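INPUT
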Amino acid sequence: MGTVSRVLNGSVNVSADTRQKVTAAIAELGYVPNLVARSLAANRTGLIAAIIPAIGYTQHSEVIQGMADVLHAHGMNLMIGASGYSDEVELQIIDAFLARRPDAIYVTGVRHSEAIRSTLERSGIPVIEGSNLTNNPIDTVVGYSNFDASVELTRLLIDRGHRRIWHVTGAKDFNDRIDDRLAGFHWLASTCNGFEADVIRCENSFEGGAEAVRQTLASVDKVEAMCFATDVMAVGGLLECQRRGVDVPGRLAITGFDDLTIAASINPSLTTVKVDRVGLGRKAAEIIVDRLQGNNQLPHIVDVGFEIIERQSTRQ
Amino acid sequence: MGTVSRVLNGSVNVSADTRQKVTAAIAELGYVPNLVARSLAANRTGLIAAIIPAIGYTQHSEVIQGMADVLHAHGMNLMIGASGYSDEVELQIIDAFLARRPDAIYVTGVRHSEAIRSTLERSGIPVIEGSNLTNNPIDTVVGYSNFDASVELTRLLIDRGHRRIWHVTGAKDFNDRIDDRLAGFHWLASTCNGFEADVIRCENSFEGGAEAVRQTLASVDKVEAMCFATDVMAVGGLLECQRRGVDVPGRLAITGFDDLTIAASINPSLTTVKVDRVGLGRKAAEIIVDRLQGNNQLPHIVDVGFEIIERQSTRQ
DNA sequence: GAAACGATTGGAAGCGCTTCCATGATTTGT
DNA sequence: ACAAATCATGGAAGCGCTTCCAATCGTTTC
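OUTPUT
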């Protein structure tokens, strides 16, 4: 038993001869190691837990895709849960996951309830926060600055000559990513003279974006640009402009955020912020794998960056 | 120890008094049961494995979302893997998952390599195949008839007076779902007189759909309708028509498949086939839960149905 | 009031591995 | 050639639970 275990775990202290025999026996018997027993004995499960707000949304599931790829290559597997943007549900899922003794845990965002934060801190395993940045991670954060990206995107609109810009965002306290985008917008606005900054909130959906366009066009005679906090809303807005014959970007410039694949295809194509989400997931998984192999010299703040992609919706 | 276990598992044979004491002690000590040990002892992990072609695609991740919701409500958790449409990778993932002794496994589609099929058959756990139908499931299939849906969709185009229809599909043998859609199209075509059926293959992407439109318009002077095997291709095609000023549905009727959210918002809105994917996932999970609770009287072929949604892209 | 019974409870075995330890085999140094 | 060190191997303990069994206790029945 001891020797078989050594063979399976690739220990050095096994003679080539014995290894051969054991391997043959394993093949002949069709023996499949029981990883549950291994997990218990070795105090290491090879399971990684990941919690995202919603599995059905590309922005989040692409991160998971990246993680799954890297983890699978290292013999580890992913457990996944969806919080539905609820702190309460998220805590429940975290508790359920921790009872399964994962080797590490990934959570989306950097703003958590006190209960969640303390649970994660006491978990004793690597905790990766993703999709945003913070100076004060629970353990390690892998993301990009939603604040900076929003600043750069808004600056692009200003550079194009716009002096009145509407920032369209989701419900209050919906999540830290869009809050930081709004904060970046506000910050830049406060540094500019003769600049009119407005904010409108709507549902994060195509219809929400469309509604935002309708409201905005109805309430003021002159709107120069709308800076949507997500591509979903921006595309919804763009399509509403198509329907109403509003010239984009002639009458109204539009920007999004996320670079969904539709952003490049729609007419006019959409200026947005691109983030390599699959890469972010891969990076998170690589850090986890590294940490579990004993590397404690890893950075705790990992910026995967972003890229402003200017397309037709802002180019006159 | 025995008694504590009985309390935790809600056994009947514990006095209210003892239960009270144990519960209090658990709360005070902040004891968290180790589900790994439980899994080993009880020979039941409470883990469900799910394999989909790609996690980042809404069509598949929505199913996972539905499963995760139901499973979480029953104290079970999801392990997830992505095959990237490769039989080889899929088998690797299945093997890796089975070593973790999941209580059930979900796989996408009903056409599998011989190795995969036999591995699943011998696994000894409930196997759910999803997103299509077959008369010969490995164990249980939860899905809808891609064949029938395609027939109905094509019939709608014929009813609208179209006599030349292009079916746009993906690469050969890409997956059983789009193959069945093509088969449905062919079958209906073969029953109609004076009907011209063409097939074109392209990449399953917006750009692929656009390319299909370009090729089709260039090669023939009269095309009446294009029936795309997926909404992604259809939307790509529709946007290409926008760019070229091709009137949809006046000059060219277009249909998709999947009812992605964009289908309802795009201009003109897209006629497509709607499937409740989250519901499909929920149903699959409910069957799993039921089976694990010992119910063996469940149907092995579960049709969750589909709905043809006619929108502007086919309505003259 | 004694026998019989069912409801509770504690204890031990065991789930299938990993890991430590002791033993024996082999190699190295001198 | 011999002692010391190194390596390979089998065996046993133990990971933290569940579950079975036997023992205990309070009740009911006649």
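end of record. Residues 1-3, 6, 13-15, 18, 37, 39-43 of chain A lie near DNA strand D (CB under 10 Å from a C1').
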